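Write out the bound-state structure for iron/sulfur cluster.
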Amino acid sequence: MEIQYVPTTCPYCGCGCGFNLVNVDGKLVGVEPWKRNPVNEGKLCPKGNFSYEFVHREDRLTTPLIKKGGEFVEATWDEALDLVASKLTEMKEKNPEQLAFLSSARCTNEDNYTFQKFVRTVIGTNNVDHCARLCHGPSVAGLAQTFGSGAMTNSLESCAHSDVVFLIGTNTLEQHPLMWRRALQAKAKGAKIMVADPRFTPSAKQADLYIPFKSGTDVALLNSMMNVIIAEGLEDKEFVENRTTGYEELKEMVKKYPPEEAEKITGVPADLIREAALMYAKADNASLLFSMGITQHTVGTENVMSTSNLAMLTGNIGRPGTGVNPLRGQNNVQGACDMGALPVSFPGYQAVANEELVEKMTCSWGCSDLSCKPGLTVVEIMHAAHAGDIKGMYIMGENPMISDPDLQHVGEALNNLDFLVVQDIFLTETAELADVVLPAYSWAEKDGTFTSTERRVQYIRKAVEGPGESRDDWAITSDIATRMGSDLFKFNSAQEIFEEIRSVTPQYAGMNKERLEKPEALHWPCPDEEHPGTPILHAEKFSTPDGLGVFKAIEFKAPAENPDEEYPFILTTGRLLFHWHTGSMTRRSETLNREVSTGFVEINTEDAAKLGIKNKEMVKVKTRRGEIEVPAKVTNDIIQGTVFIPFHFAECAANMLTSGDALDPYAKMPELKVSAASIEKLE
Ligand SMILES: Nc1nc2c(c(=O)[nH]1)N[C@H]1C(S)=C(S)[C@@H](COP(=O)(O)OP(=O)(O)OC[C@H]3O[C@@H](n4cnc5c(=O)[nH]c(N)nc54)[C@H](O)[C@@H]3O)O[C@H]1N2
Ligand SMILES: Nc1nc2c(c(=O)[nH]1)N[C@H]1C(S)=C(S)[C@@H](COP(=O)(O)OP(=O)(O)OC[C@H]3O[C@@H](n4cnc5c(=O)[nH]c(N)nc54)[C@H](O)[C@@H]3O)O[C@H]1N2
Ligand code: SF4
Ligand SMILES: [Mo]
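---
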């Protein structure tokens, strides 16, 4: 018997925990702790623990598939890649702007780098985006405006040094469990945890102060907390004076939000707003954590800027135990953004609209004619496909047929394409609609790097062979590029690609193999090989041109869709501990799927009683986009007037109900956290 322990990084959330995959005679049989890994010190959540289970599933994609007469037929790599290369060549020659590309936060930096380089240098468009658009796009856009850099300011470990941990719109216990461990470490030392969420989540249940409030009213709540802080003279005058601009406008604006006024908007009793404000402001070190409850709104970017206002007002930036911390979701969503899988930037957030940077990248890549026209975003791409303006699409490692808003519209858009390529590890709901399906290695079969939410760049290591003829994502994309006549994709390994990445990405320049091999790896920015990396941002100055943080005076705006007589409830959507997004992996993991095997709608006990709905009874939930049938979960853990559906389950897909019409003007985020809905008992 041959046993191998292969240290790697978890494929699920952005915490970036490390563990050993255990390979016995060529098969993965489990995971073992990697105690020296500083992120999680040997601890794991259930998804990490059972992450190996989907790898050897019999329904993994093992060979390329080509659709002929409506049916998939197995094909050789040569047939499939020649078909993709010739179709994409034909379409790009007509008009490269009619093609769109979805990259993947599940894939490595090397996969994403190769993908966007292909789109830019071979196709000649910037129509490349990925799920960050539906996730922390507003964090990137918002924090760039207030702090000059759109990433988490502090490390995970930093949170353990807080006196107050304020969670707003993050159910950290279920969604970032090993970050939650840091919050608990702080609590064990006497810190207070505050949670603002419309649901009494498992995180809220362990909080010292729970602030239940109405979805979509975050700005009013935060403004009101600032109103109290200024009225009580608890602002950090020195920090405001020396490190920020725009304070006077902010001060004037928040005067309009005394707690009694904010109570009318948010539903939070005025005294509770006061208590929350004082608790946060009086802490020596307060860290603020947020996630999708803040970003998934048409005012997502403004919500994010409001969180920065609160932190700057109280001087909670630049030290351990402080910071504004958007908890990035996917294992490598930070990296996919860093690598330029975004329609507005080359690797390292270098703008495609900046002529100097276009010239620099043209030189670095040795190509010609890079487009400086920003491309379309995820939801815009679907709208354009629906309208017939996008005619071809290549999707690597995303499943928009479950994860994008308004699935009926997405289905129509994808069916409207002349050509769709999907590269995945399973035949997902999206892959079913493809003309060509390309089988990729999963994370356990790959070498490369992931960048976690704390900007830590870590190795993943090949622990087992991929099934059948599956291949590395970067190798598939490179092969297509080469077949289309490019000679810029002669990569032989992930390591070779990383060397190119660091040569064009300033934040990664100082990272080499020897340094990344260490368990602690490196946090970007790491501009040269002597630089130690940067776990905490903005310690001395912000990343804005003048080094000052920018207060933004932001007024409350109501969500795009509000309850009315026909649709009297607010529907909000989100996640569960045991499942991951579209379920492609966790629903194929026996242990995880056993825990929760289908969806439900959470409804408050009193609302349910009025509608005559009993626990576990089937109900119909309806919005202006569509309807689903789903079992009810009657509970006091959600405020009245709001219902919640996890979006993991195809058979009762929350995104049949959500809308992609109204978007955040800065980040193009749809309002996934607020729709007007009706709910009725099924006869
Ligand atoms: N188990 C598991 N973990 C995951 C994921 C997963 O699918 N499963 N996905 C990962 C990804 S990609 C992401 S982005 C993160 C997301 O992590 P989270 O953002 O923590 O997860 P969500 O469930 O989407 O939403 C968080 C909370 O926002 C609350 N909320 C709803 N509306 C509002 C509002 O208007 N304001 C505020 N303040 N709160 C509101 C919801 O009740 C919910 O408790 O999780 C990551 N981790
Ligand atoms: N209603 C509602 N909708 C939401 C959200 C919400 O809160 N509410 N959240 C949004 C957010 S924050 C996010 S991040 C998105 C997530 O949306 P998606 O990214 O579409 O969701 P995933 O299920 O993670 O899809 C990843 C796909 O990659 C495949 N895959 C995994 N590993 C690999 C690999 O190594 N190579 C390749 N080629 N493929 C691989 C998986 O099989 C899966 O099909 O959903 C968004 N949609
Ligand atoms: S907390 Fe996140 S990274 Fe850590 S084991 Fe769980 S899913 Fe994986
Ligand atoms: Mo996400």
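---
The mean pLDDT is 97.
Residues 33 and 241 are 47 Å apart (CA to CA).
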